[in-house]
Amino acid sequence: MKRTTRLSFEHQLTFATTRRKRRGRWLFLALLLLLVGGVAAYTVARELTRRPPETFPSATALPTAAPAIARPAAAKEPSGSKVQVVVQRTDTIERIFSQLKLSGADLKTLLDIPGVGPSFIQLKPGDRLTVVHDGAVLQAINRRISETEVLSVTRGENGFAAERIITWDETKPPQVLGSDRSS
Questions:
Q1: Each residue of 127-181: pLDDT tens digit?
Q2: Which member of 54, 106, 108, 176 has the lowest number of beta carbons within 10 Å of its beta carbon?
Q3: Dist CA 48 CA 67 (whole Å)
Q4: Domain 53-61+70-166 in CATH 3.10.20.30
Q5: Domain spans, the chain
Q6: What b-and-e string marks burial along 33-56, b requiring 16 or more CB atoms within 10 Å of the CB?
Q7: How does DSSP assign the chain, residue by residue?
Q8: Do 181 and 68 form a contact (C-beta atoms < 8 A)?
């Protein structure tokens, strides 16, 4: 007895025309997202360059009838010992205050200032702090938040006042994003 097995294979050709529509949609969506992201980044960067320095009211400052934001005196330099601190891997703001023998009440007041607490709680190794103190009393503390921004907290007559100072590094040329494909 002889068995015969027949195998059949049917295959339909798929042309690129059906796949091109799908690719076109994904390509359009990707380009649209890039365009929207670029416009958003440009808008944010433009606002950051036009925005004046922010100041934060002190947690212990008394409310006044005039401006509600206390600004540190720009001309008056805080007096006391100036210490540069480079944050190590295990350092926290509490540990730095205890090493410098600074007041815990000053630390609590510093961290209670709106917008300032997170900037000093989230220290990273390599961050540099400039601390000015007179014994156990904190007079001023500065931290560079980004390449162009410094957070400065100084003690005034009504308590602590914080200010974000925008700085520009004149030695570095501006970074240009994009490419020249004219050649």
A1: 999 999 988 889 999 998 888 888 899 998 888 888 888 877 666 666 666 666 6
A2: 176
A3: 23
A4: no
A5: 20-51, 53-61+70-166
A6: eeeeeeeeeeeeeeeeeeeeeebb
A7: ---------------HHHHHHHHHHHHHHHHHHHHHHHHHHHHHHHHHHHPPPPEE--SSPPP-SS-SS----SSPPPPSEEEEEE--TT--HHHHHHHTT--HHHHHHHHHSTTTHHHHHS--TT-EEEEEEETTEEEEEEEEEETTEEEEEEEETTEEEEEEEE---TTSPPP--S-----
A8: no
* Residue 15 identity (one-letter amino acid): F
Assess contact for 156 and 64: CB atoms under 8 A.
no
**Six token digits for residue 121:** 């709680």
138/160 Cα distance (integer angstroms): 10
Alpha carbons within 13 angstroms on the beta-carbon side of residue 130 total 13
Per DSSP, the residues of 142-163 read EEEEETTEEEEEEEETTEEEEE
